[in-house]
């Protein structure tokens, strides 16, 4: 009887773990509140596994040590800056420390669930991709959600630039596919028995579908994420190179086809960037002036100026949105001696759209250096092991694409982008301690 109860309890526990992980992946269309709720439930299960199995030596991992030091610095920084809001944000950032640990423990003790979990992500990505394509064709998705950034004529939609499917107003569906769905395809490969034809068809079909949906979504950043991801995966994972070389040709065909047939894509991926390049080349501008012709550039200039006012400690976590209001476009152009040639605003936003400018402006040199040390132990110290651990190579390649310095990013202190990052921190912790099992 006791054995039966134990089996029932374990079965229920397994179902709960599966359910909450899937809920986490499904939470993004509903916004940060629901994502945070699933993160805290995952932390609850992870804490149970940590204390039950006394796996305390994991906390001695240098990745987690420097992550904790970074977070404690954020708390101290908020106290020094006398900011209650920053203190709240700094303390709440601890959830990502425990989130990464919890993911590691869940994957460790429920290893057999991985293949189903990644297959579910591929399935979710498939539904989302078809929904985006459906929305593009019919100007509404299967739930009736309309696309974003539309032009209307006589109350009729004549042109739209953003298609998010059932993500509705959360315009991150392209990023979601690039960060979760496409890497899941490669992770699933580890569980397909050696049949090169099935593997080939599986990869080509799903990657092509997801890539087409990402292009249609109108998001530019996911394209950069994928290019960086594939570049490092090509270097770190020998077994996937044959797929990647073919995928580059498929990418070229899809991009050419999309630019020729979809007006909104030609505008977002070609006409708009081309107009910025033409403006830069046509005007007599210094380097800062060229940077200032782009809205992202204005974010960077303003955040650098915020950083320059307090180089060591910064202005406080999540304070950029307030500090940036202090400096007008005319003031910045005078300080950095550049010519204003566009009608862009002063670069004020909720965050600087680059995690390194964000860290520099809000946490200063100390915070930026601590975060870079954390990335060093997380990425650089594990690169050698990637050659013999293909799943680790996939996880690290995705993480590099998320923290790559020479591209726009989400806010490192926001729920959505931080959850992307620390999901892969959890996977890296798991894969670096568990060499791939060949099935």
**Within the largest sheet, what's the order of strands?**
1-2
| Proportion of beta-strand residues | under 5%
For the sheet with most strands, the description reads:
2 strands, antiparallel
Question: What are the low-pLDDT stretches, counting only 5+ consecutive residues below 50?
Answer: 1-10
- Look at the structure and give the mean pLDDT: 87
Distance between the termini: 35 Å
> What's the gyration radius in Å?
23 Å
Oligomer: single chain
Give the SSE order as H and E letters: HHHHHHEEHHHHHHHHHHHHH
The shape, in one word, is globular
Number of strands: 2
Which structural class best describes the helix and strand composition? Answer: mainly alpha
Helical fraction:
55-70%
SS summary, helix count = 19
Question: Could you give a short description of this structure?
Answer:
Helices cover about 70% and strands about 5% of the residues. The protein is mostly helical and about 450 residues long.
Write the layout of secondary structure elements.
Elements: H1 2-26, H2 32-53, H3 62-80, H4 84-92, H5 94-109, H6 114-138, E1 148-153, E2 156-162, H7 173-188, H8 196-217, H9 221-236, H10 241-261, H11 263-282, H12 287-291, H13 295-309, H14 320-323, H15 329-336, H16 355-378, H17 383-386, H18 390-403, H19 415-433
Antiparallel strand pairs: 1-2
Helix pairs in contact: 1-2, 1-6, 2-5, 3-4, 3-16, 5-19, 6-7, 6-8, 7-8, 7-9, 7-18, 8-10, 9-18, 10-11, 13-16, 18-19
